[in-house]
């Protein structure tokens, strides 16, 4: 049974802070800027990846430019969430912004892929605190029953990030330097730091001794890292039966088992295992993992197809992602409005999982002759699925956790989504790279690495490809298509699992903050197999 540390004792009985509508809107101004900062980074970097990889060398490291970021963010997310519960959300939120900005500056100064991956990991450490901080603060000031209408305001940032981000990333890559894809974070980050310093001042701070579960945090980092290394290296860098992969698997299992044991006994566990006793929380978390797997993998690989196969510039490839982003934004806004008006949400994860699976399956049919119009239609389907799932899964998870553990629960839910992203980018990226290399070598022959193509497959950039003979360009486009088809076939298979998970989610009424002692606000419905449910 988990003990309660002094730092959180007050959180169990103190009523949640009451914010007026005006105060909520002012506070959300800081959250919107911070969310824009986190969203813009991924959206700006994605169109620049082909040029970055070609400039610094190493297609075989492509996945790690994104995986390093997501992996660090994944490991840091539950830690930031728990620190917010223990020492206050304001100081942890501001610290995460500062770390993110330092990492951004260093990424822009990278001279090789090793440095870039390392500094992207530093960025990820800060980004983990950005997203969980935004969602935890929102959960603390707005009850789930009313959160949909405020999420609509929060979602207003999505058009800027999802449409403006790829456009800005492409423009920077084509007309400036890919390094500015990272430097652009700095002025926006200074604004976010300044605004959040003032608007978050009302949030409660720690009033007791803080006990941090450093052992649990270390074990969490170990098993996450080794698991992602297995999925990244298995079958590519090392054979599945090699001593390296087997050794990593043993470390993963041992570290995970030790992590569970430590969390059961820790006074303030980094990831309270008690929240997983709630059926809906566990299902929402599992669905978040599937969403992350498909979403991050898709956004990372689609610019490859657009630039190498369809001949788009980095700027245009960013613009061509608009149908997916607009569909995701529209469905997310509509879903939030429906939830706020009706209080019902169960249909959204089911519909979203189905649309996501169909969208990924459609991407798996693309080839060199697939038009941009068809690709855009496929994006609309995938984007609609993402929009139904992104906010709904988090809302279900937060509604299933007690207020005293809101930061840790939000961190756990975000962790699972990011973990899915780490696995998705590493697995789908490895499948894509392996299939691409095999297909290109088979079609163009070993001579492609002998200087006749101007460089190896790992050093190929869209500009270099356009300077090569027609036969080589066709062979490379076919190889990219083959890699995309393989990756999205596996992504669609994973999404089918999401449909099954969504069908088991039960409708538990969304709670609201109550007056009085606040104890009701701190209680979450615990959905078990035998509980009575509605709808």
Compact summary:
The chain is built from 19 helices and no strands. The chain has helices spanning 6-13, 21-56, 62-87, 89-108, 113-141, 144-154, 157-175, 180-183, 185-199, 214-233, 243-265, 279-308, 314-319, 322-342, 347-363, 372-399, 406-444, 462-466, 470-503.
Order of helices and strands: HHHHHHHHHHHHHHHHHHH
Q: What Rg do the Cα atoms give?
A: 23 Å
Low-confidence stretches are: 1-16, 447-455, 513-535
Shape: globular
Assess the beta-strand content as a share of residues: under 5%
Largest sheet: none
Total number of β-strand segments?
0
Helix content: over 70%
Mean pLDDT: 76
> End-to-end distance, in Å?
33 Å
- Counting H and I runs of at least 4 residues, what is the number of helices? 19
Structural class computed from helices and strand pairing: mainly alpha
What does this structure look like?
The structure is a single chain. By secondary structure, the protein is mostly helical. Helices cover 73% and strands 0% of the residues. It is built from 19 helices and no strands. The model is unreliable at 1-16, 447-455 and 513-535 (pLDDT under 50).
């Amino acid at each position: 049974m988990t003990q309660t540390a002094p730092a959180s004792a007050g959180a169990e009985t103190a009523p949640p802070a009451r914010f007026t509508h005006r105060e909520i809107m002012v506070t959300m101004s800081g959250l919107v800027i911070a969310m824009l900062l986190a969203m813009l980074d991924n959206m700006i970097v994605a169109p620049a990846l082909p040029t970055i990889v070609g400039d610094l060398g190493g297609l075989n490291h492509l996945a790690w430019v994104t995986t390093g970021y997501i992996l660090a963010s994944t490991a840091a997310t539950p830690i930031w969430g728990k620190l917010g519960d223990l020492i206050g959300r304001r100081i942890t939120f501001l610290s995460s912004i500062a770390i993110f900005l330092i990492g951004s500056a260093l990424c822009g100064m990278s001279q090789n892929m090793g440095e870039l991956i390392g500094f992207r990991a530093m960025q990820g450490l800060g980004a983990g605190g950005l997203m969980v901080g935004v969602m935890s603060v929102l959960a603390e000031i707005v009850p789930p029953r009313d959160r949909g209408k405020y999420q609509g305001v929060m979602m207003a940032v999505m058009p800027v990030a999802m449409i403006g981000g790829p456009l800005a990333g492409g423009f920077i890559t084509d007309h400036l330097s890919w390094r500015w894809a990272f430097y652009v974070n700095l002025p926006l980050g200074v604004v976010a730091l300044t605004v959040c310093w003032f608007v978050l001042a009302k949030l409660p701070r720690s009033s007791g001794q803080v006990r941090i579960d450093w052992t649990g945090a270390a074990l969490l980092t170990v098993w996450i890292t080794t698991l992602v290394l297995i999925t990244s290296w298995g079958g590519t860098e090392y054979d599945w039966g090699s001593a390296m992969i087997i050794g990593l698997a043993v470390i993963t299992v041992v570290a995970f088992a030790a992590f569970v044991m430590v969390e059961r006994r820790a006074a303030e566990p980094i990831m309270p295992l008690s929240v997983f006793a709630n059926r809906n929380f566990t299902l929402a978390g599992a669905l978040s993992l599937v969403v992350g797997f498909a979403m991050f993998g898709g956004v990372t690989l689609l610019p490859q197809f657009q630039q190498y196969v369809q001949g788009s510039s980095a700027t245009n490839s960013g613009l061509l992602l608009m149908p997916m982003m607009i569909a995701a934004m529209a469905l997310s806004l509509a879903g939030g409005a429906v939830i706020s008006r009706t209080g019902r949400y169960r249909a959204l994860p089911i519909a979203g999982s189905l649309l996501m699976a169909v969208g990924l399956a459609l991407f798996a049919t693309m080839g060199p002759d697939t038009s941009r119009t068809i690709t855009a239609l496929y994006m609309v389907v995938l984007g609609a699925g993402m929009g139904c799932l992104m906010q709904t899964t988090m809302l279900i998870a937060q509604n299933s956790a007690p207020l005293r553990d809101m930061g840790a629960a939000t961190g756990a839910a975000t962790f699972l989504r990011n973990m899915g992203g780490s696995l998705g980018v590493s697995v789908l990226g490895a499948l894509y790279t392996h299939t691409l290399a095999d297909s290109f070598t088979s079609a163009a022959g070993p001579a492609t690495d002998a200087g006749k193509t101007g460089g190896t497959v790992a050093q190929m950039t869209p500009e270099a490809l356009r300077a090569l003979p027609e036969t080589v360009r066709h062979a490379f486009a076919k190889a990219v298509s083959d890699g995309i088809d393989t990756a999205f076939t596996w992504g669609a298979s994973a999404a089918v699992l999401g449909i099954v998970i969504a069908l088991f989610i039960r409708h538990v009424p969304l709670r609201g903050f109550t007056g009085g002692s606040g104890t009701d606000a701190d209680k979450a419905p615990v959905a078990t197999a035998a509980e009575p449910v509605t709808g």
